[in-house]
Amino acid sequence: MTRELQIGAAGRQWPFSRGLVAESVLNAGASPEVAAAVARRVEAQLRAGRRSSISTVQLKVLLVEVAQDIGGPALSASTQRQTAAFEDILVTAKKGELPFSRGVLARSLEDTGLSPREAYAVASQIDLRLRQQGVRSLSVAEIDDLTERTLQDLYGEQLKLTYRFLRENRGRLGVMGSGGDAPAPFSKGILTQSLLAAGVPPDSARKVARVTQRQLRGAEDRLVERRVIRERVEQLLEAEVGPEVAARYRLLQVIRHPPRPLVILLGGVSGTGKSYLAAEIAYRLGIARVVSTDSIREVMRSMVSPALLPTLHASTFSAWQALVDPNAEQPDHPSTEALLAGFREQVQQVSVGLDAVVRRSIEEGMSVVLEGVHLVPGYLSARHGAIVIPMLVTLPDEDEHRRHFESRDKQTTQSRPLHRYMRYFEEIRAMQDDLEALARRLDVPLLDSLSIDESADQAVDVVMRRLLTELSPAERLNLLGQEDLRLEEIGLAKAAEPLESGRKLP
Question: Which sequence ranges form a coiled-coil region, renumbered to this chain (predicted)?
């Protein structure tokens, strides 16, 4: 009985394979006929020598010699340079060195959505590249980098990013959008947040998020489309709290991933709580970018001297002082006309910077919440390529307005001194009156609740209502599944009425 020829060293041997020898010669550039002839000659010489085993080094020497005899010096040199198919390529990992395996890599590639045949073809191409370059060892990071580049060359950026996500988030669920972006980790907390923003009661929101996560983890796929998650959540919401809330949730998901960037303008005078409210609105709507007009003004101040633009370097309620004739006596308090003239001049100056921020957000396709006193109704008009939603924050109650300043003085450790705002409190109130009148004239909604939560609820309703009216019938059908979704179906019929200054929410 002929003893089977083994390749390798003691402790790790495997049967001789003429196919691996032929593959090595093919990788070196030989034709199939030459590769088959070389493989037959190598096997014949090994059998003739009656050997029971041979090391990979010895087999490589023999292969190079036979390649020289049959294919010539060029084929012999190419065979010598490469890593033969029967030689291990060692991958250095935390637990030591392991042989590179096309099969293992192919199985991980299948998780990206490739078919088994496509995944094995990619793994084989990577194996070929490494062997033709004569690579004998490499790190996990290097093989991951090569895999990403190969995926990008063959299938594009999205599949590369998908593979990277799976590699960096092993065992975690990934959420894929439809815009070609990289997958993002599934978060039960973020889902709960979006449910709360849609008006789902806290207990129901946590339950729906928990059940959704359990269902997704029970599936085989590690990556799931955002559309699939939304459909599952809507089904659970309809059963848990009814179709109206499910429809609100669907619209809120469109807000989080709108067809055009949202530009939310939150105006209002000092002390009305705009900054806190802007942060809360951005949190509820999943908008990462919040910009204060005060910060834009500060940047502009650093670039322009007070001598050139004195009104820019003053507060909005004291900008009028820069317009007083130097030869005239300066009053302690301005007339309403002078007050508004100084305020509007600074608004026009800062609007240059605001316009640049809006343009950049549109170019990047990023939604943004802008907040500040300089967001006067009518100064930043509609922009092509964006959905602009202006709102005005007011405090009808003077005593409550004073308490806001007192509270801010304590929270900021007097970095924004109370006495300064109290000195010009009447001017600030006059500015608010003017802004309210302008907002009514231009149909800009007023957020006048005393509670941050109530004002945020109002704001989210305004955004939903505005988005619903801005979407074209085709966009409604594509994003919401129906062309004629009405305000009443998502509980916005009452909110559609004009908001009046001073009106409290029930």
Answer: none
